[in-house]
Predict the structure.
Amino acid sequence: MKTILTGIRANSELTLGNYLGALLPMVRLANKHSNEMNVNIFVPDLHSIIAEIDGDLQKNILRTIKYYLAAGLELNENVHIYRQSYVPAHSELCWILNCVALMGEASRMTQFKEKSEGRDSCNVGIFDYPVLMAADILLYSAEYVPIGEDQFQHIELTRNLATRFNNKYGEVFVVPVKTAEQVKFMGISDGVRIRDLLNPEKKMSKSTLAENSKIMLDDDPAKAGKKIMSATTDSLAKVKFDMFNQPGISNLLQIEALVTDTPLQDVIMTWAGETRYGELKKKVAEDVTRMLTDFQARLSRIRDESIYELFEDGEEYANHVASAKLLEVQKAVGLR
Ligand code: TYM
């Protein structure tokens, strides 16, 4: 059986960008394919500790998994939910892949450059985190890794490491499909990058200070609607999907498509030629408000105990699969 795999760090509350760019696409894919594929959803808690953690890590971990359920994830025997640090093979494979990865390629990772920029010193974990991510994926032979556009470079790194390893030591790893095919599998025309509402040239990020630039999943839904109403647009007075020249309007069209589960092309057609941005904003604000209201209601009904039960089964499965793959790797490099 093929495997779909993804993870979201549990450092803080998530943004609408995480939700629409990663969580919701994963839930939709999982529900569509979990009859014929393994669906691995894990919390990369070792990735969390490379940076500051807002609040309590344990609570954040539980909340992250609750988000998938509140977003509509349907469970069955092919859906596996686990914590990265409960499967020691991840760290071990990371070390072995460190010896295959090159300093140059790791230094080129945009996320590393962004996260280390302007800092006097930066921990080695920030530098090495894409290699750990490659281990997360390769241990489970996952071909499909639904993620937002900012993580695409890490998929390419994973593919390069897997191919280099296979060339040197024999065919051990399944190489995940190229990002262009990942996008096709996700059913979207391009990578999703939800933009900052005030400064749409940038991606929406939890670390941006201005409150109105981002929507957090625990925002009061009505307040979230107001943030959409105050989003930066342009003075061209023509609704058109053009991320380069009209990023603000294009971002609203993208949000509308994902929130209402409508193909982006259909949303673009519906609004083509509209000159009043206020009308579009009102519709997106209403749909985001409704989505958040429903999401938060479902979230409040999920108990902590039910998540611990999922971890128990998921971690048993993950350790089984990951240790078998690790042993294959250890044998290939001569450690066993
Ligand atoms: P993380 O936790 O930074 O981000 C989680 C997911 O959210 C997506 N995302 C966005 N998508 C669209 N628009 C935005 N504004 C936006 N902001 C964030 C990210 O692309 C990501 O998919 N290294 C990963 C976690 C990870 C992982 C893995 C993922 C570790 N191991 C293995 C997949 C497979 C990370 O730091 O994501």
